[in-house]
Design a protein that fits this description.
Length: about 300
């Protein structure tokens, strides 16, 4: 689980995020229905950054869990250190309780922060820019790349995500954790569509697909990240990105993303490239836009 980020990352992923058309509506619908917002889109399209943007803009608590192939559904709810408890039992440590070995997960923190703080090993998993106390109540939770998990994971999250409650079974007396936040927290779930998600899980979400950014949106993104007054060949970068995407589709390769477009801008600024005649421009764009060339179709590619 990711437990931190730096201020520069927040400036990039939070404050400077440009929402494509339709995304604001999807956020409002997910908020109104108290359903998770499930975002589909290619890597680098801005899915993960949306949750940071909402938390930054609305001054809400922010939690994230990056899913891997080893992630279990319970990792998002709580974890229990059975190895440490066994060791303490063998050492005959006095006065230990099951509570001492429970660590609340991101959904617990979002649903009921006050109860999570009562546990001895509780350490709030928020990035450095986001302390637990915010001016406004509520939280945003990012569950990133859910499609990397075993299909049992989304199925096991159906009740916690739909009913906003779960039962902690590793305590001597089972404990129910129920959402007490008002307004209810917004849960953002992302998928690169590398694996099909269970239909029952998708039905319980508000679904939105991020399309590749068009030229006007790319210009807004460029301005948001580096301002209007910096000199670099923006028109050329947009044209080269569009050409690279077209070629990648023809070759059935992964298309270069908006994140790579931002990398190209920063590379030009870092190298002092102000015009298309600079000798290093083409090699730089090849490094950034054509990195998948010759490697075959990327996993999860779809035309």
């Amino acid at each position: 689980m990711s437990t931190g980020t730096d201020t520069t990352q927040v400036e990039t992923d939070g404050k400077r995020y440009v929402r494509p058309p339709g995304l604001d509506l999807a956020v409002r619908v997910a908020t109104a229905t108290s359903r998770p917002l499930l975002l589909f889109g290619a890597p680098g399209s801005g899915k993960s950054s949306l949750a940071k943007n909402i938390a930054y803009r609305d001054d809400l608590r922010y939690y994230e869990h990056v899913v891997t192939a080893r992630t279990s559904a319970r990792d998002l709810l709580w974890s229990f250190d059975s190895v440490r408890r066994l060791g303490d039992a063998q050492l005959k440590v006095r006065d230990w309780r099951d509570d001492d070995y429970v660590t609340p997960g991101v959904l617990w923190w979002a649903f009921d922060r006050a109860s999570a703080l009562t546990f001895k090993r509780a350490k709030e998993p928020h990035p450095s820019w986001n302390t637990g106390e915010r001016r406004r109540p509520g939280a945003v939770v990012l569950i990133d790349e859910i499609d990397k998990a075993d299909p049992d994971v989304p199925n096991s999250l159906l009740v916690p995500l739909a009913d906003r409650l779960f039962t902690v079974t590793d305590l001597s007396e089972a404990r129910e954790v129920r959402e007490v936040a008002d307004p209810r927290c917004l849960i953002v779930i992302t998928s690169n569509q590398e694996r099909e998600l269970p239909p029952a899980f998708v039905r319980r979400c508000v679904v939105h697909e991020l399309e590749p950014h068009d030229e006007p949106t790319l210009r807004k993104i460029a301005e948001s990240h580096v301002g209007r007054d910096r000199r670099y060949p923006l028109d050329h970068l947009i044209r080269k990105l569009q050409d690279a995407r077209k070629q990648a589709r023809a070759d059935q390769r992964r298309q270069p993303s908006t994140a790579e477009f931002i990398d190209a801008i920063r590379a030009c600024l870092g190298e002092g490239i102000e015009s298309t005649t600079h000798l290093d421009l083409d090699p730089i764009l090849k490094m950034i836009f054509e990195k998948d060339a010759g490697t075959g179709a990327a996993p999860g590619w779809s035309p």
